[in-house]
Structures are given as C-alpha cells and as structure tokens.
C-alpha cells in the first residue's frame, strides 16, 4: 500500500488504556505509518494534510482475532444451534458458493468490521470441498477493496463432522449415513497443493492481506494432514489457527480418539509454537494453558460465540496466568451474529466477571483493551499494528465524544469496553487512509452491496434447498447425540447453567 505525503491529526484525545486517561494529543503520520506523537501544536510540514479531531477520542484500530468471512451471507440462519449443529448446517448455510459469493461475503464482513472500529482481522474462510487459489484471492481482494487488513486462512479438513465425532456416524440412520458420505472433503494432499499454490502466487497487496493456514478442528484432520499444514506454515513463515477445545464434545472426543487432551495431541504433532492460535479454548484446563503458554502460543477468545453456541465460558484469566497471549474475536456472523469488537470486549469482561465472586480474578478493562489490540495483533503475527505509537501503522479509530455513550466521559478505558457499542464511530483510518468517514465506508456503495447480497441470498436459498432438507433430517440426531456426549463427566466445568454437565 503506497501512500505518499504527511498527515497531521490535530486536537484529538488519545486513549491511554493503562492510565484510564485520554489527553489531547497530535499525531503526525507519514504515508501509512505513525511518525510522531506529541502535545497539541506538534510541528508538521506545511503541506501536510490536516485532520481535525476536535471532540474525538482516538484509539488503536481494534483487531479481530477470529472470524469467518463465509458466515456473512449466512447471517441469522440459526438459533438454538450448538457448534455441532452449526457444522451440520454447512451444506445448507455455506453450500454451492461461487467465487462471486466468496468475494461478496468477505466484503459484507469487512464493511461491518470497519464501520464498527475494527481495522484488521484473522479470517478463516471455508470453501467446500477444498480451498482454491481463486477463492482465497477473491477474499483478499474484498478486504483490499474496503481498505482493511486481514490474515486470510483457508479452513481445511479431510474428515466430516460424522467421521470426526466418535460414534456419530453410527448414530445416523442407514439412509442418512449414505447421504452424509457424499459430503466427503477433498483428499488432504489436494487441499495442501492448492494452499501451496495460493501461498506461492499471492498477488494481493501484502500490506493489507496475508495468508495463513487453518486446519479447522484437530478431530476433523488426519495427523498426516496436520503435519502437512505445519510444513506449509514453516515453508512460508505464516500462522496456524485451529478451533481447539471449543466445545465439550471436542474434549470428550479427543480423550476417546487420542487418549489425551487436544493440546497434548497437537504438541506431539509439533504444531504448538508462537505462530499457533487456539480459537476459543473454552475447555482448556490448567495443563493445556501451561503447554500453550510455554510454547508462546495464543488463544483467540470469542465470548459471544461461546455463549451463543452454548460452548461455555472460557477461563481467560487462567490463560493469562499461564502466559498465553490473549486476543479477542467476534467469530463468524453465523454464530455470533454481528462482527462488533466493542461487543466482544464488553462480553469478554462480562464472561470473566460472572465466573466467580473474587473480583481480583476478573479481567480488567485495560487488560481487555490490550487483548483486543496488541494481543490480537500478535495473534495475526502482524508486528506493526495494534498500537498508536511511532513506527506503527496509522490504524486509528475516531470516536465522536458528543455521542451519547460519551456523555459524560468519566473514564475512557472503562467506557470503551463497557459503554461503547460502535455507534460513536465517526472516522476510521487504516494505514493513513480514511476508510470510514462520518460513519460511512468510503470505498463501498452500500446500496449496491445490499442489492448484490439480496441476489446472492435468494439464489443460494434456492440451490441449497436439498442441503436444508438434509439438515432438517440431521438436526434431531446430531442435536441429541452430541449433547449426550457432553453429559460425560469431565474434570473441568465451563457451563454457567448446570453444575451437573
Ligand atoms: Zn471459528
């Protein structure tokens, strides 16, 4: 991304999350990078573009550590779905996509995120039966067209849900078994070859979008596939991201399948390291957290999704205690409905506070701001985002302090986490460029976006009718077998509602 010239942002109040203050500060930007920060009146070249930030709170662009671009066209399709039911809905909710859909669904998410103060994300995209260089390119272009940063990771598997969960295939009727056998994923070598091709030929501006590798859920990937993903990540020096211990069904299945916890299994395969991210980690125990922390790994914490899918309440304090890097994410629109990082921060705070009466164990608002910016930036493996400081990219959110969330402004850190809901976002700058101005995305025609989305929605609803019928037949069996597995006693408890499970 080549931006020339200097910009001086004057008169804004810059959040100091740790100090719970927001002193008036000027920011000098050179091209896409912050050059200098100083008191009001900071010297700037005469030809610098002046941005008036009077009456505005400036905070680092929020970094979404975990989302799914493919979910944005599936908004609102489910209600009482566990993770396993969401996965079972795949052929209906994510089926029959063409590359135009892949572009469009990522574009919808990117627009939502930037207008809600988020400037970069880790997007795990699904293409069935395997990732393609064209699909990844379409996703990368969508982010680049909005002007948002993204790490795009193809979410891959060589086993279906029915092969991954011990006993689930056997629980199906013979005719259903026949139908789900047709859903087979591509052989893992074909998926690896396509990912390698995409990594080799990546042509989207790498200042905005980069690739990573996401073996979707360890139980859904053969060990050989996992090792292939590891080699790919090493060869291209990119991240690895996987849904680990998201649901109790997964941890119970791991003990049945591997005879050990998921992190122990991943450790055996050599996957754990500073570039490895556990998505969710709701059912990690202390030993798992220690293992992740010792390897310098991260967790992308998605409290909204964890509650929406009934996965449970993740123990973020336990993760921090074991030096796990903590990022915060929204998860996809099909399981936490909006991609609002302000809401994710607020929910991260609530989920922490509801777990026990000792307030010293709760996450503080400053810890949450750090997690949603610097912590998530580390998850993305992006070293120069997540802070407003010299040398960092100029990814800056301008909040309108005359909006109701800030009347009055007593404590900017507490209010950013607990009061803000995205409705005060005025401008958003990414890499020195305004991508949202006065609440409106600069590079996207919203009316046209809505028209394209409606056309795609109605076409997909038609072609996915058989997928919907299949889901209707699967729902009762998956929806009773999996909760049954989750009744098996387990040493740790992460459900808020029942001490029996
Ligand atoms: Zn996810």
Q: Let me know the number of strands.
A: 18
Largest sheet: 9 strands, mixed
What's the end-to-end separation, in Å?
51 Å
The proportion of strand residues reads 15-25%
Secondary-structure content class: alpha/beta
Morphology: globular
- Low-confidence residue ranges: none
The overall average pLDDT, rounded, is 97
The helix count comes to: 19
Tell me which ligands are bound: zinc ion
CA-based gyration radius? 22 Å
Helix content percent band: 25-40%
Note down, in words, how this protein is organized:
There is one protein chain. The chain has 19 helices and 18 strands. The chain has helices at residues 83-88, 90-93, 99-115, 133-146, 161-164, 168-171, 174-181, 188-200, 223-236, 248-258, 262-269, 286-294, 303-308, 316-321, 341-353, 365-380, 412-418, 446-463, 465-485, and strands at residues 6-14, 24-30, 33-38, 49-52, 56-60, 62-67, 118-125, 149-156, 209-211, 214-215, 240-244, 276-280, 298-301, 325-328, 396-400, 425-430, 433-437, 440-441. The strands form three sheets. Strands 1, 2, 3, 4, 5, 15, 16, 17 and 18 form a nine-stranded mixed beta sheet that branches. Strands 6, 7, 8, 9 and 10 form a five-stranded parallel beta sheet that branches. The longest helix has 21 residues, at 465-485. It is globular. Zinc ion (ZN) binds at residues 66, 68, 124, 243, 279, 331-332.
